[in-house]
Design a protein that fits this description.
Layout: H1 14-21, H2 28-37, E1 45-49, H3 55-62, E2 66-71, H4 75-81, E3 92-96, E4 107-112, H5 123-132, E5 134-145, H6 161-167, E6 172-184, E7 191-202
Parallel strand pairs: 1-2, 1-4, 2-3, 4-5
Antiparallel strand pairs: 5-7, 6-7
The structure holds S-adenosylmethionine.
S-adenosylmethionine binds next to helix 1 and strand 2.
Length: 203
């Protein structure tokens, strides 16, 4: 049997990922999030942590949300701005930087799709910042890697159900959807073991 694929985070070219995924369809966890928090924004503010190519952020904008997007990769800003219609731009603010180093506004939704685990050694500080930004009555919705994921490493954070229970102890957990299965990655035919939780919680 071959070794499980490892991700060498220091060699990941996020701008390549951003270009590849900017126009790709939204994933099921995004639709699930909208089902729970309500698709229509009505001016509500979402902080999108690690918005990447912006596929989810642009739907939030189109649905009337205000979006505060954070990403460490400068190419994310152009990928996003180039694809946002002029009449939606005034509802979009972008901060380029590491999650825990950006001053996050209080938000109705703090959303993070496949991004927080890559904070690595800054993961706990990142979670502090992310959860502090959820205002009363607001939600957190994010994908967190489980410990069975092939990519877990010193610089790619994984969590357990116990960790989730204690981290979200001061919020109401609405759902924990667990995926623990082999599946494709990187846009090709290669597969890896995916283990992640979609955690949605209400403050
Ligand atoms: C796997 S991509 C996910 C992009 C997008 N959320 C999606 O689902 O298509 C991870 C994104 O997080 C960003 N990122 C990784 N580590 C980060 C950090 N410490 N602070 C801010 N952004 C980070 C990367 O630049 C990249 O755009």
């Amino acid at each position: 049997m071959s070794d499980p694929p490892k991700l060498n985070l220091s060699e990941v070219d996020w701008s390549d990922f951003i270009q590849r995924t900017a126009e790709q369809p939204n994933l099921p966890h995004f639709e699930r999030t909208l089902d729970i928090v309500g698709a229509e924004g009505h001016g509500r503010l979402v902080v999108d942590l690690g918005f990447g190519g912006g596929r989810d952020a642009r739907v939030f904008l189109a649905n009337g949300w205000r979006v505060f997007g954070v990403d460490v990769t400068p190419a994310a800003e152009k990928a996003m701005v180039d694809r946002v219609p002029d009449d939606q731009r005034d509802r979009l603010e972008i901060a380029i930087g590491r999650f825990h180093e950006v001053d996050l506004p209080e938000a109705d939704l703090v959303y993070a799709s496949f991004s927080l685990p890559f904070a690595g050694q800054d993961f706990e500080a990142t979670m502090d910042a992310a959860l502090s930004a959820v205002k009363p009555g607001g939600h957190f919705a994010g994908i967190l890697f489980g410990m069975n994921d092939d990519w877990i490493a010193d610089d790619i954070a994984g969590v357990t159900r116990n960790w989730i229970a204690s981290r979200f102890a001061d919020m109401t957990i609405v759902t924990i959807d667990e995926t623990d299965e082999d599946g494709p990655y990187g846009g090709g035919d290669d597969t890896k073991h995916w283990h992640y939780y979609l955690v949605i919680a209400l403050r």
